[in-house]
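Service request form, structural biology core

Requester: graduate student, group of Dr. S.
Request type: structure prediction, single chain
Budget code: on file
Notes: please return the result as structure tokens.

Sequence provided:
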Amino acid sequence: MLSHSMIRRNFSTVSKNYVNGQWVSSKGDVFFESKNPATQEVVRRVPQTPKSEFDEIVSVAKNTFEEWKNVPLMTRIRYMFEYQRLVNENTEELAKLITHEHGKTLVDSRGDVFRGFEVVESTTSFSSHLLGETLENLASGVDTYSYRHPLGVCAGVAPFNFPAMIPLWMFPVSITCGNTFVLKPSERVGTTTEMLVDLLEKSGVPKGVVNIVNGGKDTVTHICQHPDIKAISFVGSNTAGEYIYKEGSKHGKRVQSNMGAKNHCIVLPDADKEDTLNALIGATFGSTGQRCMALSVTVLVGEAQEWVPELVELGKKLKVGPGHDETVDIAPLNSAEALDRVERLIESGARDGTLLLDGRRPTVEGYPDGNWVGPTVIDNVKPGMECYDEEIFGPVMLILRADTYQEAIDIVNQNKYGNGAAIFTRSGSAARKFQRDIEAGQIGINLPIPVPLPMFSFTGNKASFWGQNNFYGKAGVKFNTQWKTITSRWREESEEVYKVSTAMPTMK
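Core staff response, request fulfilled:
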């Protein structure tokens, strides 16, 4: 297995941009700080890239596109075969980096890498997704055929919560389709991105195909407004995602914007009790609740409401601590700002509902300064409460109670978000009603986190997604390509030549 030193000599304490195959220090004099969430140690300083440097990076990507688009598809796919091998072989190294700078548990970090690896793996089958269409002899000597053509320079704005998976949703799909790419990683987790790019370089992908630009909102605005960037992929909060969608669209770009969520799970009384309770605990508190597919709301129907004490007891058994400790279940939140937000929303839930398990400020021996919140359970929550209406993004389970199944469905559908929803039941007819009536885009039946594998697409909807084509799968290919249609005529020598006519041409 490759070590960090074999990939690149070391990781600087100041993030660099990656331009035309070289790591380049920015001349920017404004910096963001990336901190270890368990200790508050400053891990990195991340520069705000000046506009002039940003323009140079896009220019490199634009110039490289003129060559990359002509590289045969099968050659691009072979690069991805090699890249997926390298990512897979370096899973443990990547996972340790993620845990160090993000804070999540090692087991969760490994999953982060693996789900990204699966998307890279799926790009090796793009020869079928990129097939065109043909119809011959539409008229005498006239044929029409369409094929998928790359867009040009595409860009990605990645979030902090999945340092490996989300970038791997973005640039491997785009470059396999023939585009070049400019990626802005989260200011909090840039080291993981650097290793991913070093592995891409080792796979043989030419210089300039993927480039990295650092920064904050100014860089995002540059991406939205630069005329040579044709499409933007984004995953993150609604505040940023709605801005990117509106600003990018205003400047003529395609945008796929995956945003916030409030995923509900309906539990019917006939569900397998042990299976359901264990699934709820894992899906609510896993990754410290910092994932857009976390099951943050449990809707208990009828007699299932009697299971609340057991949910609380299971939550109490989870261990809080630093992510590198493999016995830990709940790692720190990624930032002090996130900690403040989660604590504020727990306080509002305690005021408006019933706080059954309070995870605020647990003591973690040896780590007094970590961003710690333990498992928290708030009962008797209702729509309209602040803790319900806002995305908490922390290890907090909200419990709503419904007398009937239809009441539970109505609760889910009245929520503005539509990323995912789940149901636990033994009833086939109840499950079928759920999959047909629920308005969320990704449905789990006796399965808590229904994130599709990459032969499908990530299909959140409503306020959770703005755009026309979702991430990865066939939708990802559609987003990263455009149709080009050719109608050709080859006249036989015996056929008549065109006669001069100003009438609308028809094919007869």
